[in-house]
């Protein structure tokens, strides 16, 4: 199995819980068996020495992610900037999400046309540097990246575009996470392991799914996203642990999840 990553937003939550420095927090994360990070692009500029701190801690950046507005014609300048940044820092994967959310006022056909055209230009530019561009499935009914069918249409329309598969987001979108993994297996660049399930009313941050169920994100193996079946199919895909960004007291769930991932995958 490849190295295990975690979303940097979750690392920041652990840092706040522990009231430690970032370097000290990284030690807890590394002790759990995690050696890589997925980092929101803006974080590198909010904390100018962040990339150096990550390397000094003995960790790497596996992917950078960014939320733009890909539904507007020729609106991809920031994404090209991110590609340049990743090329300079030898980061091989970029994950893109898009806003605004879909409403009755949006011309869906025009929105999709612009989105696909923008993604084609972004993907082609990234290829020059050997960087993969992925879009992440997003678990809301008003997101263009939510349903399996819509994602298939976009991925089949943009040659060289990948899916950053998120198990918990498919659960939130009322799509079977395991079936979705199998459906996209040849299009996946990376895997976000997020075990979302029906809320147990135990104080975790809750989110209502597309079909109206109250859900929360749990340690791997404790939710309803069929994580055990997915891990057995993962093979050489690099995986990233991800939890709800508003969660607190995450370190125990992170440690349990890393153990579960390593034990189930071997």
Q: Which keywords apply here?
A:
eight-stranded parallel β-barrel; 42% helix; 266 residues; globular; three-stranded antiparallel β-sheet
Describe the fold and architecture.
Helix content is 42%, strand content 21%. The protein is α/β, with parallel strands linked by helices and 266 residues long. The strands form two sheets. Strands 1-2-3-4-5-6-7-11 form an eight-stranded parallel barrel, surrounded by six helices. A three-stranded antiparallel beta sheet has the order 8-10-9. Helix 1 (8-18) packs across helix 2 (22-31) and helix 9 packs parallel to helix 10. The model has no long low-confidence stretch (mean pLDDT 95).
| Major sheet attributes | 8 strands, parallel, barrel
**What portion of residues is helical?**
40-55%
Strand order of the largest sheet: 1-2-3-4-5-6-7-11
**Shape designation:** globular
Total count of helical runs of at least 4 residues: 11
Order of helices and strands: EHHEHHEHEHEHEHHEEEEHEH
- State the end-to-end CA separation: 8 Å
């Amino acid at each position: 199995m490849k190295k295990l990553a975690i979303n940097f937003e979750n690392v920041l939550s652990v840092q706040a819980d522990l009231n430690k420095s970032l370097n000290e927090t990284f030690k807890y994360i590394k002790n759990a068996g995690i050696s890589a990070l997925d980092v929101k692009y803006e974080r590198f500029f909010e904390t100018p020495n962040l990339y150096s701190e990550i390397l000094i801690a003995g960790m790497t950046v596996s992917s950078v992610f960014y939320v733009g507005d890909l539904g507007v014609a020729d609106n991809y300048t920031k994404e090209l900037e991110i590609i340049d940044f990743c090329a300079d820092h030898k980061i091989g994967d970029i994950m893109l999400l898009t806003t605004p959310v879909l409403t009755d006022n949006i011309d869906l056909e025009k929105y999709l046309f612009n989105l696909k055209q923008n993604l084609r230009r972004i993907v082609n530019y990234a290829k020059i540097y050997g960087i993969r561009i992925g879009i992440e499935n997003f678990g809301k009914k008003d997101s263009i990246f939510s349903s399996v069918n819509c994602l298939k249409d976009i991925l089949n329309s943009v040659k060289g575009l990948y899916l950053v598969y998120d198990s918990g987001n498919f659960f939130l979108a009322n799509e079977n996470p395991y079936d979705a993994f199998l459906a996209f297996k040849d299009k996946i660049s990376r895997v976000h392991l997020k075990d979302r399930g029906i809320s147990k009313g135990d104080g975790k941050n809750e989110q209502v799914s597309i079909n109206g169920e109250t859900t929360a994100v749990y340690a791997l193996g404790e939710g309803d996203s069929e994580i055990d079946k997915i891990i057995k199919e993962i093979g050489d895909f690099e995986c990233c642990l991800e939890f709800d960004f508003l969660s607190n007291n995450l370190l125990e769930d992170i440690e349990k999840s890393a153990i579960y991932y390593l034990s189930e995958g071997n």
